[in-house]
Amino acid sequence: MATDQPKQKVSLASAWRDARELVAVHRQRLALGLGLMLVSRLAGLVMPGTSKLLIDEVIGNRRVDLLWPLALAGGLATLVQAVTGYALSQILGVAAQKAINDVRKSIHEHVLHLPVSHFDSTQTGVLIARVMNDAEGLRNLVGTGIVQLVGGLVTALLGFGVLLYLNWRLTLVVLVVLVLFGVMMTVAFRKLRPLFRERGRIQAEVTGRLGQALGGVREVKAYTAEPAEQASFVGGVDRLFANIRRSMRGVSATTSISTAIVGVVGVIMTLLGGRSILAGEMTLGDFVMYLVFIGLVIGPVVNIASIGTQLSEAFAGMDRLRELREVVREDAADATREPCPSVQGELRFEGVSFAYEPGKTVLEDITFTAPAGSTTALVGSSGGGKTTLAGLVLAFHRPLAGRVLVDGRDLATLRLRDYRSHLGVVLQDNFLFDGTIADNVAFSRPDATRAEVEAVCRTAHCAEFVARFEKGYDTVVGERGVKLSGGQRQRVAIARALLADPRILVLDEATSMLDSESEALIQAGLQQLRQARTTFVIAHRLSTIRSADQILVIEQGRIVERGGHADLLALGGRYRELYDRQHRYEENRFVNPGEDYAPGAVRKG
Predict the structure, then answer these.
(1) Cross-strand bridge partners of residue 426
(2) I need a surface site. Which of 177, 251, 471, 513 has the fewest CB within 10 A?
(3) What does the alpha-carbon distance between residue 67 and residue 71 come to, in Å, rounded to a whole number?
(4) What is the SS3 assignment for 483?
(5) What is the pTM of this model?
(6) What's the confidence (pLDDT) of residue 517?
(7) 3-state secondary structure 491-532
């Protein structure tokens, strides 16, 4: 199972810095929430504060005149708590969801601008988990978690002052116990935070693999790979369960410690408080009031176990988001690059070399010129570097050596978004979104009118099959265009490229897997598409590139032959070898369709 990018340790200081920045953005709502929290907490002290008067004065000294005022004060305090509690949940709830919404939008925008190499090495499901899941924990940071923590500490401090006033000796003993509890909680949270980080990573891996299996369900079923995929998924969820079990063990331990602390404080209260009453140092009302306030002090401290766990998860999510943010965007330097409002379309490679991994050269010393409006065909053995060269044209990669020039300007010095606005691409397996045919065609130019969409569809020979659908251009094609045939998907992709009206066009194996009828239709559409555009064609069917202005034969990352179709045939080299092999294959395919025959194989007889 593929993993995410190499993990790097994110310091607690970095996490706190991110947290402060996030809190600063939502400081107004948080400030209002803290104000409401303080009002609520102060109102919550009224009822405990009246307990001494109720016991010592009303009950002990028969002060019936105080009964109604005490009851009224308690009722009003409760009403204040109810109102502020409702307002607090609304304000902080909205603030938390706003924070999650903002972070998701920010991370999504960042991910879309990462280099292609990052997507090549990272599962799609992992990135989805980063965008959707890791932001969820922020509700505990911007929402109720941090405010409850602050509010609890304020209540504890106020309550602690009252406890010191009632019995300072007993309070100091309780303080020692609470300090020990705080130390244990700090250690526990340091242990839990890495577990939460690891949980997010495992969950992202499992989600990524699951997405691949469901997306490729036809291949899974065709190769009866269900057991293998099930085993892979089971292994992932078992690792996730093991992580959850370890983290639950830690959370349960903190909860148990919290319970034990309450018991220890109860024992101390029983012994020392009982002696204080017997010695006349405290009245019964003092003792009851002390019991209530000790609950107000211990409650928030013990609640730190729950709030701390939530905040640990939030920090773990922020760690993972920070790792993603630190991946450099491909357009990071666009601010210092030259604008590229228009291009003529001349491309020149000057001594270009490229490698995906150090020491494993894919292209080496590639030099050629593709004049504006010309067609350059790339042929050669699979793995020779043709698609990589096309990727350099599309600016998916940057040369390790040499330059790619566009109209005489180094591509590395041009704004990436500007340059790509002049590009069009048609691939062997074009991606269609789960929308209508019209939506997929208009993807390259969302502001296009329906008339413009239908016009390019007629040019790309889409109208023939669209007319057979009940809803026409409003037919939903399904995920990845699964409801369309391969030829239909290709024609939609050609229409999409036509609508973009690119100056530079890349056709990567656009017809290699199609039947002859579909290929004939698509070739007609491609001819329209190539007119007056600088075109790069990658094709195994050499019959489709005879009209190319120049043909580059690429083997093992080098250009071994170049020229026109007739010249290369006359040369009798590698291109002639490829052409003859392809010709024998095509001849056998149509003359002897039942014979199992592949390019390069020796014909029987």
Answers:
(1) 507
(2) 471
(3) 6
(4) coil
(5) 0.67
(6) 61
(7) HHHHHHHHHHCCCEEEEECCCCCCCHHHHHHHHHHHHHHHCC
Would you say residue 10 has pLDDT above 60?
A: no
Q: Which of 2-6, 225-229, 494-498 is most confident? A: 494-498
Give the span between the Cα atoms of 210 and 234, in whole angstroms.
Answer: 11
What tens digit of pLDDT does each residue of 512-530 get? 555 566 666 667 666 766 7
Region 85-104: mean pLDDT is 77
Compute the average pLDDT of residues 564-585. Answer: 84
* Residue 35: both structure tokens together: 């104000």
- Rounded Cα distance between 25 and 210, Å, is 36
Q: For residues 201-222, give the mean pLDDT.
A: 71
Query: Smallest Cα–Cα separation from 37: which of 138, 141, 149, 159?
Result: 149
Sign of CA pseudo-dihedral 146, 151, 152, 154: positive
- Asked if 327 contacts 111 with a C-beta cutoff of 8 angstroms, the reply is no
Q: How far is CA 441 from CA 63, 416, 506, 573, in A?
A: 85, 23, 17, 41
Distance CA(457)–CA(449), nearest Å, equals: 13
CA 391 to CA 397: how far, in whole Å?
6
Q: Quickly count: other Cβ atoms within 10 Å of residue 537's Cβ.
A: 26
- String of DSSP letters for 358-386: TTEEEEEEEEEEE-TT-EEEEE-STTSSH
Residue 43 three-state SS: helix
| pLDDT in the model for residue 44 | 73
Terminal alpha carbon distance of the chain: 48
* pLDDT above 60 for 91: yes
Rounded alpha-carbon distances, angstroms, from residue 233 to 203, 219, 243, 324, 562: 11, 17, 15, 25, 49
Q: Which amino acid is at 174?
A: V
Give the residue from 575, 529, 237, 245 showing the smallest Cα distance to 377.
575
Half-sphere exposure of 70 (CA within 13 A, CB side): 18
Are 497 and 394 a contacting pair, CB within 8 Å?
A: no
Give the pair of three-digit tokens for residue 204: 């992202």
**Cα–Cα distance for residue pair 308/287, rounded to 1 Å:** 31
Pick the CATH number of 12-325 from 1.10.10.10, 3.30.420.10, 3.60.21.10, 1.20.1560.10: 1.20.1560.10
Q: Give the residue extent of every domain in the chain.
A: 12-325, 346-422+547-592
How far apart (Å, rounded) are the C-alpha atoms in residues 69 and 64?
A: 10
**376-387 per-position pLDDT tens digit:** 999 988 888 898
Strand order in the sheet with 360-370: 360-370, 347-357, 401-406, 409-410
Q: Does domain 346-422+547-592 have CATH number 3.30.230.10?
A: no
**509 part of the active site:** yes
**What span, in angstroms and rounded, lies between the C-alpha atoms of 107 and 132?**
9
Q: Give the length of the chain.
A: 605
Catalytic residue among 57, 323, 509, 519: 509
**Residues facing 507 on adjacent strands:** 426, 537
Residues 249-281 have pLDDT tens digits of: 877 777 777 777 777 877 887 778 778 877 777
What was the pLDDT predicted at 597? 39
- Strands 401-406 and 347-357 come out as antiparallel
pLDDT at 212 over 80: no
Give 38-58 pLDDT, tens digit per residue.
787 777 777 776 776 777 676
Six-digit token string for 430: 């074009």
